Amino acid sequence: MNQVNNKNKPVFSLKDINLFYGDFQAIKNITMDINYNEVTAFIGPSGCGKSTFIRILNRMNDLITTCKVTGEVLYEDKNAYDKNFDVIELRSKVGMVFQKPNPFPMSIYDNIAYGPRCQGIKDKEALDTIVENALKKAALWDEVADRLKKSAMSLSGGQQQRLCIARTIAMEPEVILMDEPTSALDPIATQKIEDLIIELKQDFTIVIVTHNMQQAARISDKTAFFLLGELVEMDDTNKIFNHPKHEKTEQYITGRFG
Ligand SMILES: Nc1ncnc2c1ncn2[C@@H]1O[C@H](COP(=O)(O)OP(=O)(O)O)[C@@H](O)[C@H]1O
Ligand SMILES: [Mg+2]
Prior knowledge:
binds adenosine-5'-diphosphate; 4-stranded antiparallel sheet; alpha/beta; globular; Rossmann fold; binds magnesium ion
């Protein structure tokens, strides 16, 4: 998928990012690269800016009127905050899955077909293929193949979250952002999503916010530790969990605060 891009470069390259909500500075001078086909986890105590920072990547903060971002956000080498940059295109290339599963109140099929239809795909066979492939990639097909016309609201929480992932996949994104995607789910549903994320990185770049450090350790390649709006350190996940450079990281991952 999208092999035209030079995947040796980072998909996102962020430099000197500051973010303000009115007078309050929520993100302080963060520089970070995010690599293709990796899982990058954002960890840190509640309120440290993880959700704020992940929303910078698809410009979701644009919707908050008091919010101002400075610094440089390069998405595939293009300035994502440039006036001429197409935000709609960005949001289709950088999809997002939220904490609480939010399927549309329509059938399973229509949830997945919604985005492609909006993009002008009307042919039934083409849509059938998109729906089937997205559900297969999201590891949901076997559970719903015989009830595609049933309401998405009839699915369990874990199935709804995989449906939301399938809905994102149907848009053929490059990057999938996930903000605490399993925190509303039981342990079995959580494990299914974790297994799925590990599968998905073959095709997509994943950025995940999690307050669950074991989850970050299990599924991510890179871990970024945030504290009070700053990026304390970011490195290979096994280094962060086994040999962190900073005392604050060590204290956090050993459960001494947060
Ligand atoms: N829309 C907003 N307006 C003002 N302040 C906000 C808004 N959203 C978040 N904040 C503040 O920004 C800081 C970071 O919040 P957030 O990114 O949600 O942290 P996290 O996801 O790590 O828990 C917190 O102090 C929070 O209160
Ligand atoms: Mg958050």
